[in-house]
Amino acid sequence: xxxxxxxxxxxxxxxxxxxxxxxxxxxxxxxxxxxxxxxxxxxxxxxxxxxxxxxxxxxxxxxxxxxxxxxxxxxxxxxxxxxxxxxxxxxxxxxxxxxxxxxxxxxxxxxxxxxxxxxxxxxxxxxxxxxxxxxxxxxxxxxxxxxxxxxxxxxxxxxxxxxxxxxxxxxxxxxxxxxxxxxxxxxxxxxxxxxxxxxxxxxxxxxxxxxxxxxxxxxxxxxxxxxxxxxxxxxxxxxxxxxxxxx
Length: 247
Hints:
Elements: E1 3-11, E2 14-22, E3 27-31, H1 38-46, E4 51-58, E5 61-65, E6 69-70, E7 78-81, H2 93-97, H3 99-103, H4 108-121, H5 137-149, E8 155-159, H6 167-182, E9 192-196, H7 200-206, E10 209-214, E11 217-222, H8 224-229, H9 234-241
Parallel strand pairs: 3-9, 3-10, 7-8, 8-9
Antiparallel strand pairs: 1-2, 1-4, 4-5, 5-6, 10-11
């Protein structure tokens, strides 16, 4: 699936104006200082924030145009994963993973079978009957990822997916995420992904492209190595300073 997002939007007094395209199967990492507009960008694409002008198109489907057309978030076919897994405490892991299917009208037995299959493929089937309060941070993050993927979204949005994890856990979850993003399905053979991250290692290890946003606008984009090797702003220099750029 491809994405075309050329729009202006606002939150309170903050204004965002972007022109961004994702090719089918492309993984784009978004970085920028606090308050630059990264989360507003994801929220607008997901349908949580109305745009003021411009348009958002997913593949050949118009999701938003100006202040008029606005497809609701639940009808966009987009999965958004925030920093906190926010699993449902009253459900076990299997039912948490299958929740999206149940919400879409799938019968309980079929949803549980699909969830169990997905958990087994991820090597997490031994956690199926556990409640969220018995999971480690890394386990909860992987379960939340599976819950997002089970509905086979057209686009995957991730807002600082590793921010709440310790360093020892990030590697496992990042590996699981990479495998999930690169796995093709019958319905979504080329799913695009957009990841907001403060860690340049995510850009280098996950991204096909790195996009820097500052003051509500895109200031630099290109391959992660190219952007990090030749920063154009003070933030770009600080961001690049935390990265190991292979020669």
